[in-house]
């Protein structure tokens, strides 16, 4: 199974900060990667699919980049509602595998 | 509006069985692949199983293979997960989720249903 390694596992940031989360695949996965946001007690929400495509309704401050093995989720200017846990998910093959998550906390 | 609603969760003893259901509405159910994803308390997300729109392709995580069975009834707009030989490690919130039509990415999720395996 493809392993997805996310970093950092947590970070503290302030409103307005630029935040970057990375995900590394144990083998090449083309651009078959999505990013999800999850708030406590809620279902995950799709932010980015196919590594760089912004899901409908998601604010443009979210962006994704990368292909192959290295991927990045960037929040250009962190907003209060962005404090959450973020996960990557590879959709290249089965079993589909999530990263371990990155918790974004208020500084 | 697209909606997914899970049901069938609860408390079950180790070795027991449970069947989860996911009722879909607001979209053409038989056009989409569907998934089950679970999350143990305080832990990350774990993909469990996927089924293609016509049930032609089915996949399982190694952790549930041979014990869980995913199925769907397109006439009833419903997705199912039959869980047998349950273990304490299967305790989690289970989500059903829809894949995008053109990409494997989960764009709509249910609210989740708790399954607790305990004696």
From the alpha carbons, calculate the radius of gyration of chain B and give it in angstroms.
13 Å
Largest sheet of chain B: 7 strands, mixed
Radius of gyration of chain A, CA atoms, in whole angstroms: 13 Å
- Tell me the structural class of chain B: mainly beta
Number of strands of chain A: 11
Roughly how much helix do the residues of chain A carry, as a percent range? under 10%
The DSSP helix count of chain B reads 0
For this entry, what is the oligomeric state of its chains?
heterodimer
Using the alpha-carbon principal axes, give the shape of chain B.
Answer: globular
What overall geometry of chain A do the principal axes of the alpha carbons give? globular
Order of helices and strands of chain B: EEEEEEEEEEE
Number of helical stretches of at least 4 residues of chain A = 0
Largest sheet of chain A: 7 strands, mixed
State the distance separating the first and last CA atoms of chain B: 40 Å
Helix content of chain B: under 10%
Biggest interface, chains and residue tallies = A-B, 24 and 23 residues
